[in-house]
Write the structure tokens for this entry.
Amino acid sequence: MTATALLLVDVINSFFEPGMPNYYPEAASVLAPMHRLLGAARAADAIVVHAAERHREGFDDFEWRKLPRHHLAGARDSAFFADFHPAGPRETVVHKRRFSAFFATDLALFLHEQRIARVVIAGVKTNVCIRATVQDAFAHGFAPVVVREATNSNRPHLAAAALEDIARYMGRVVSLAEAEGMFA
């Protein structure tokens, strides 16, 4: 069996709570599939990584040149949404300052040390943070798997293009049922 970890990307208030800076109604459709993935990973005692964007209050950040200030440490928009927070000894948090959960974090080192070969990836947004994370997972030697029902974007045409690129060049795009089976 391939050692598999679940990586949840940006399951934070900003995308899922109405009125928050990056909220879009379609994001809610990924919540039930992500709950199922989280349940499968926890039942299998698999490693779960909660990757969440966090920026430092009062300090410059290169991202501000392209995007407005957001996801500051301690702010409501950067908090984990509902019950999607680490729970238990097999779950950890990676704070990221760019789109990819791997860029300038110790995620690759951590996963290699745990002998993880495959990373099941879910969260938002498919064409931005998910795609960047998949690309870097592949570059670090992991087999990335994206769960079709557990990711989306407020720009569906870009999400579809990202999934096509992922499947063709970097990893696999699978159904929720297939992904759940990867933790069995």
The radius of gyration is 15 Å. The mean pLDDT is 95. The longest helix spans residues 156-170.
